[in-house]
Amino acid sequence: MHVPSRQASVKRYTGHPCKEGHTERYISNRGCVICAYNARKGKRNIEYTRAKEKYGVGPTSWWANKRLATAKYRAKREGVPFDLVAIDIISAAPIDGLCPVFSLPLVWCDRKNPMNAELDRTIPELGYVRGNISIISQRANSMKSNAKSPDELQLVVDWMRRGL
Ligand SMILES: [Zn+2]
Predict the structure, then answer these.
(1) Tens of pLDDT, residues 105-131
(2) Residues lying with their CB under 5 A of ligand 1, a single-atom ion
(3) Where are the domains of the chain?
(4) Beta strand 128-129 with 82-83: parallel, antiparallel or unpaired?
(5) How far apart (Å, rounded) are the C-alpha atoms in residues 103 and 142?
(6) CATH architecture under which domain 51-150 falls
(7) CA of 12 to the centre of ligand 1 (A)
(8) Mean local confidence (pLDDT), 94-99
(9) Facing residues of 128 across strands?
Protein backbone atom coordinates (compact mmCIF):
# COMPACT_ATOMS: atom_id res chain seq x y z
CA MET A 1 0.00 0.00 0.00
CA HIS A 2 1.35 3.38 -0.90
CA VAL A 3 1.31 5.80 2.01
CA PRO A 4 1.71 9.37 0.78
CA SER A 5 4.30 11.34 2.72
CA ARG A 6 2.72 13.62 5.26
CA GLN A 7 5.20 16.31 4.37
CA ALA A 8 4.21 16.36 0.74
CA SER A 9 0.65 17.09 1.72
CA VAL A 10 1.39 19.95 4.11
CA LYS A 11 4.13 21.80 2.20
CA ARG A 12 4.25 23.55 -1.12
CA TYR A 13 6.01 26.33 -2.96
CA THR A 14 3.84 29.41 -2.98
CA GLY A 15 5.95 31.45 -5.37
CA HIS A 16 6.79 33.87 -2.55
CA PRO A 17 10.10 33.21 -0.84
CA CYS A 18 10.36 34.17 2.87
CA LYS A 19 12.59 37.08 3.91
CA GLU A 20 15.51 34.63 4.17
CA GLY A 21 14.87 33.48 0.62
CA HIS A 22 13.49 30.00 1.45
CA THR A 23 10.83 28.77 -0.90
CA GLU A 24 8.96 25.95 0.87
CA ARG A 25 5.93 26.89 2.96
CA TYR A 26 3.33 25.11 5.04
CA ILE A 27 -0.09 25.10 3.43
CA SER A 28 -1.95 25.41 6.76
CA ASN A 29 -0.42 28.66 8.04
CA ARG A 30 1.78 29.72 5.08
CA GLY A 31 4.80 29.79 7.41
CA CYS A 32 8.28 29.10 6.04
CA VAL A 33 9.29 25.45 6.56
CA ILE A 34 13.03 26.12 6.96
CA CYS A 35 12.56 29.12 9.26
CA ALA A 36 10.14 27.14 11.46
CA TYR A 37 12.64 24.28 11.66
CA ASN A 38 15.47 26.65 12.62
CA ALA A 39 13.31 28.26 15.30
CA ARG A 40 12.51 24.84 16.81
CA LYS A 41 16.17 23.87 16.73
CA GLY A 42 17.18 27.14 18.38
CA LYS A 43 14.60 26.62 21.11
CA ARG A 44 15.84 23.09 21.74
CA ASN A 45 19.46 24.27 21.96
CA ILE A 46 18.45 26.95 24.46
CA GLU A 47 16.55 24.34 26.48
CA TYR A 48 19.65 22.13 26.60
CA THR A 49 22.01 24.98 27.48
CA ARG A 50 19.73 26.06 30.35
CA ALA A 51 19.34 22.47 31.56
CA LYS A 52 23.10 22.00 31.50
CA GLU A 53 23.57 25.03 33.73
CA LYS A 54 20.75 24.06 36.04
CA TYR A 55 20.90 20.26 36.08
CA GLY A 56 24.23 19.35 34.51
CA VAL A 57 25.78 18.47 37.83
CA GLY A 58 24.92 14.80 38.16
CA PRO A 59 22.21 12.17 37.73
CA THR A 60 19.27 14.46 38.47
CA SER A 61 15.65 13.56 37.81
CA TRP A 62 15.59 15.92 34.79
CA TRP A 63 18.54 14.03 33.34
CA ALA A 64 17.03 10.63 34.19
CA ASN A 65 13.72 11.52 32.59
CA LYS A 66 15.48 12.52 29.37
CA ARG A 67 17.30 9.14 29.33
CA LEU A 68 14.03 7.41 30.13
CA ALA A 69 12.28 8.97 27.14
CA THR A 70 15.12 7.97 24.80
CA ALA A 71 15.20 4.43 26.19
CA LYS A 72 11.46 4.02 25.78
CA TYR A 73 11.67 5.17 22.16
CA ARG A 74 14.59 2.83 21.40
CA ALA A 75 12.93 -0.14 23.10
CA LYS A 76 9.88 0.32 20.91
CA ARG A 77 11.95 0.75 17.76
CA GLU A 78 14.14 -2.30 18.48
CA GLY A 79 11.32 -4.40 19.92
CA VAL A 80 13.09 -5.09 23.22
CA PRO A 81 11.57 -5.05 26.74
CA PHE A 82 11.21 -1.77 28.60
CA ASP A 83 10.40 -1.62 32.30
CA LEU A 84 12.15 1.30 33.98
CA VAL A 85 11.27 4.38 36.00
CA ALA A 86 13.49 7.44 36.56
CA ILE A 87 14.73 6.22 39.94
CA ASP A 88 16.12 3.03 38.34
CA ILE A 89 18.29 5.15 36.07
CA ILE A 90 19.42 7.42 38.90
CA SER A 91 20.29 4.36 41.01
CA ALA A 92 22.35 2.91 38.16
CA ALA A 93 24.65 5.96 38.10
CA PRO A 94 28.08 5.33 39.66
CA ILE A 95 28.24 6.76 43.20
CA ASP A 96 31.78 8.11 42.68
CA GLY A 97 30.70 9.89 39.47
CA LEU A 98 33.37 8.07 37.45
CA CYS A 99 32.92 6.11 34.23
CA PRO A 100 33.20 2.45 35.34
CA VAL A 101 35.26 1.66 32.23
CA PHE A 102 37.78 4.52 32.16
CA SER A 103 37.62 5.68 35.82
CA LEU A 104 37.35 9.27 34.58
CA PRO A 105 34.75 11.81 35.74
CA LEU A 106 31.47 11.64 33.86
CA VAL A 107 29.76 14.79 32.62
CA TRP A 108 26.01 15.25 32.46
CA CYS A 109 23.84 16.85 29.79
CA ASP A 110 26.70 17.45 27.34
CA ARG A 111 26.20 15.29 24.28
CA LYS A 112 29.32 16.69 22.59
CA ASN A 113 31.58 15.51 25.40
CA PRO A 114 32.92 11.91 25.06
CA MET A 115 32.60 11.57 28.85
CA ASN A 116 28.87 12.32 28.71
CA ALA A 117 26.97 9.83 30.86
CA GLU A 118 24.87 7.40 28.84
CA LEU A 119 22.51 4.58 29.64
CA ASP A 120 23.95 1.24 28.58
CA ARG A 121 22.28 -2.15 28.33
CA THR A 122 24.64 -4.89 29.53
CA ILE A 123 23.02 -7.35 27.12
CA PRO A 124 21.24 -5.26 24.46
CA GLU A 125 18.63 -7.92 23.59
CA LEU A 126 17.40 -8.10 27.20
CA GLY A 127 16.25 -4.50 26.87
CA TYR A 128 15.82 -1.69 29.34
CA VAL A 129 15.07 -3.53 32.57
CA ARG A 130 16.42 -3.39 36.11
CA GLY A 131 19.66 -5.35 36.44
CA ASN A 132 20.54 -4.91 32.76
CA ILE A 133 21.43 -1.22 32.79
CA SER A 134 24.47 0.80 33.80
CA ILE A 135 25.70 4.34 33.30
CA ILE A 136 28.95 4.62 31.35
CA SER A 137 30.65 7.30 29.27
CA GLN A 138 29.58 7.86 25.70
CA ARG A 139 33.11 6.89 24.63
CA ALA A 140 32.96 3.53 26.39
CA ASN A 141 29.41 3.00 25.20
CA SER A 142 30.23 3.54 21.54
CA MET A 143 33.29 1.25 21.71
CA LYS A 144 31.14 -1.42 23.33
CA SER A 145 28.08 -1.08 21.13
CA ASN A 146 30.08 -1.21 17.90
CA ALA A 147 31.25 -4.69 18.90
CA LYS A 148 28.80 -7.55 18.51
CA SER A 149 30.31 -9.47 21.42
CA PRO A 150 33.17 -9.28 23.95
CA ASP A 151 35.03 -11.79 21.74
CA GLU A 152 34.76 -9.47 18.77
CA LEU A 153 36.08 -6.55 20.81
CA GLN A 154 38.93 -8.82 21.94
CA LEU A 155 39.86 -9.39 18.27
CA VAL A 156 40.36 -5.62 17.89
CA VAL A 157 42.52 -5.54 21.02
CA ASP A 158 44.60 -8.50 19.76
CA TRP A 159 45.07 -6.85 16.38
CA MET A 160 46.13 -3.55 18.00
CA ARG A 161 48.60 -5.39 20.26
CA ARG A 162 50.14 -7.24 17.32
CA GLY A 163 51.05 -3.89 15.79
CA LEU A 164 52.98 -2.81 18.89
ZN1 LIG B 1 12.47 30.99 5.68
Answers:
(1) 999 888 889 999 999 999 999 999 999
(2) 18, 20, 22, 32, 34-35
(3) 1-32, 51-150
(4) parallel
(5) 16
(6) 2-Layer Sandwich (3.30)
(7) 13
(8) 94
(9) 82
